[in-house]
Specification:
The complex is a heterodimer of chains A (114) and B (109). With 114 residues, chain A is mainly β. Helices cover 0% and strands 49% of the residues of chain A. Chain A has no helices and twelve strands. The radius of gyration of chain A is 13 Å and the shape is globular. Chain B is mainly beta and 109 residues long. Chain B contains no helices and eleven strands. In chain B, a hairpin with a 2-residue loop joins strand 6 (53-57) and strand 7. Classes of the chains: A mainly beta (114), B mainly beta (109). The A-B interface holds A 4, 40-45, 90, 98-100, 102-108 and B 4, 8, 30-31, 33, 35, 41-45, 48, 50, 87, 89, 91, 95-102.
Chain lengths: 114, 109
């Protein structure tokens, strides 16, 4: 069974801090994704990666960056946290067949920026 | 623009049947997914439809009509553990997933 592990379930950070959210998957998946989930909105894609060292901007990349140095690990970085980045962050992975391969999600990191 | 519409909330009774609808307008279509998400947990995959028709998986079925831009998730013999949000997502021509806001399903005894 695929396991996607996010390093923290809850984080509280101050405005202006640099924040690292880590995600590791154990199924050798090529594709990895970072989403944020806010009440009343669908999942919004921040960044994704189809290979090591590769990254693509999603729909809302502003204020975020990512790193994928190893296939199993995809990190999301908030360069200077702001209160509007308070949200639930979900990491997901999928295998190479982009069409029918479902996403496997981590349990999420609930980030509060004060 | 691209859009996925689902009802915000639905209520049903334990043991009954409920149908959760999803309509979509996207640039291209490469499949539709349904996910279940319990409160405070990760979404988990339920079904995938790419051709018209009904796909059945135990108590859950998913239907797709591409010409109408419409899908539904049918849950039979409802159990209390089915209380969750149900997310509809469509893969567009660029293989990007477009997500609905989710339908919160409340099951009453």
């Amino acid at each position: 069974d695929v396991k996607v592990t996010q390093s923290s379930r809850y984080l509280v950070k101050r405005t202006g801090e640099k924040v690292f959210l880590e995600c590791v998957q154990d199924m050798d998946h090529e594709n990895m994704f970072w989403y944020r989930q806010d009440p009343g909105l669908g999942l919004r894609l921040i960044y994704f990666s189809y290979d090591v060292k590769m990254k693509e901007k999603g729909d809302i990349p502003e204020g975020y960056s990512v790193s994928r140095e190893k296939k199993e690990r995809f990190s999301l970085i908030l360069e200077s946290a702001s209160t509007n980045q308070t949200s639930m962050y979900l990491c997901a992975s999928s295998s190479q067949d982009r069409e029918s391969s479902p996403l496997h999600f981590g349990n999420g990191t609930r980030l509060t920026v004060t | 623009g691209q859009n996925i519409d689902q009802p915000t909330e639905m209520t049903a009774t334990e043991g009954a049947i409920v149908q959760i609808n999803c309509t979509y307008q996207t640039s291209g279509f490469n499949g539709l997914f349904w996910y279940q998400q319990h409160a405070g947990e990760a979404p988990t995959f339920l079904s995938y439809n790419v051709l018209d028709g009904l796909e059945e998986k135990g108590r859950f079925s998913s239907f797709l009509s591409r010409s109408k831009g419409y899908s539904y998730l049918l849950l039979k013999e409802l159990q209390m553990k089915d209380s969750a949000s149900y997310l509809c997502a469509v893969m567009d021509s660029n293989y990007q997933l477009i997500w609905g806001a989710g339908t919160k399903l409340i099951i009453k005894p």
